[in-house]
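The protein record minuted underneath.
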Amino acid sequence: MAKKQKSSMVLKQQERARSRDEKISGECTVEKDPAEIRGETSGPESDSGSSEDETSDPASHLRTNMAQITLRGNQPHSHKRTTSPSDDGYDKLWELRPTSSKGIGMFAKTNISGGTRLLADQCLLHLPGPKTLLIDIERGFDQLSPSQQIAYMNLQCPDRPGRSPIVRIWEANCFRVGEGAGIFLKASRINHSCTPNAHFAWNATIQRETVHAIVDIPANEEITISYCRPHSDIYHRREKLEPYGFDCDCAPCAQDTASGQASEKRRCQMEELFEEITKIRDDPWITAARHFRDDELQARLKLIKMLEKEKLFQLELGNQYHSAATCYERLGDMEKALRYAKEGARINLTCVGPDSEILESDQARIHELEEVTRRIRYSARPQ
């Protein structure tokens, strides 16, 4: 009976970890151009000589400062549209200007600190549902006002035979919005990098597409996001970027350099780690064994190390910290579980801002771990 109850507890913990993986990874790894829509409409610095142990515990490098995390856990939550700062205020941080090879780009006007919100963009054209047909795009465009249609047609339009300009612009510029997709005039001007310095996410609370600096961005540096999963190998990245009509020339894609080759090696290793974690997570009997639970933890710690080495400070990194926290919880190390959950919350705050529903979930998780940790400390006191 005790064994059965323990298995049930493990399954519950596994389901909670899977739910977090799907919730956060679904927001951070979606392509700027959804693959489902294409199918329906078609008919920076790398250290190659690092001697750091990839399996070492990154807990000693945690930079959590929870006093700076202004979470909204005690505030009433509403899914209605709330007042958002004027987009004109964000315009003071950046400007749109031509690039040497990528058309229009967004550049920092001043030094920008990591975690700063750069944009809260309203949707010009939103098409709901997971599948979008060519006729849906054409009908949606027809419902725009003349001035909106002009703004739409001024967006990037790659040369793709067999598609109308309206469809080509949609494919090259749409962002995922919940289960649907939408066009955002300002966010669509941000160019791609496989090591981006900004992160985009749909904020359901304020009904805007937000963009945040995830590292410090110096004045005059171009602001970039990732159109694909940057932790994928170069072949998968090129496949996802093909509809945009350009070849990425960022540092990780420069395979004729030592740093580019080292970056590619790490990203291939990350792909293998994702596959390993998926196999462990999806087998409840393997997960129930302490030895394999430790294997999952070690795989996630390696993944965290590599994501940080590649400077991929997006929601996926926060997700991995939270998942590592769950692994520590299973192993009974509540102190480390709490520390990793707090670091995950810090990273998520940088990526999506304090008004995101993701931060509310993080706050609840941290409160739960704090309560358990407090009880353990109290019970361990000498009587």
